[in-house]
């Protein structure tokens, strides 16, 4: 009886170790989207930009909104450009797209603007480039968030990138 019990305990201990080892063998969070977004934030050159984004992250989307009770994408880009870089932008994303000097996707710098057309050919969304393929924007479903520009949904919709004149 004692041998059976010892065998059972050894078997249970082996299973537990296997489970723990498999958890430990997973790739660490540095490969997750959230960890890569955190790395992009940590690598920002502008500390005021870092503070600005942190203070707005999670604010819900509200069409026409321009404060922390709700904001839309163009309002977020407008406030960010004004408060961090001292630059003025038009209020609507398609007008903002007309105000920039084109820059290729491969040459984007921190603070550059990224425009999308999700509803057709006209610009209907804007975000602000950070680094390492990440940008910040006011998502209609998730509010102000840092997102991965390399995701297919964004790659299909990107129509213009650039810097303010």
Automatic annotation (TrEMBL):
The lineage of its organism: Bacteria, Pseudomonadati, Bacteroidota, Sphingobacteriia, Sphingobacteriales. Keywords: Hydrolase, Lipoprotein, Protease, Signal, Thiol protease. PANTHER family: ENDOPEPTIDASE NLPC-RELATED, MUREIN DD-ENDOPEPTIDASE MEPS/MUREIN LD-CARBOXYPEPTIDASE. This is Lipoprotein Spr/probable lipoprotein NlpC. InterPro entries: Murein_DD/LD_carboxypeptidase (IPR052062), NLP_P60_dom (IPR000064), Papain-like_cys_pep_sf (IPR038765). It holds the Pfam family NLPC_P60. Residues 43-165 form the NlpC/P60 domain. Belongs to the peptidase C40 family. One of its GO terms (molecular function) is cysteine-type peptidase activity. It comes from the Bacteria. One of its GO terms (biological process) is proteolysis. SUPFAM superfamilies: Cysteine proteinases. Signal peptide: none annotated. Gene3D superfamilies: endopeptidase domain like (from Nostoc punctiforme).
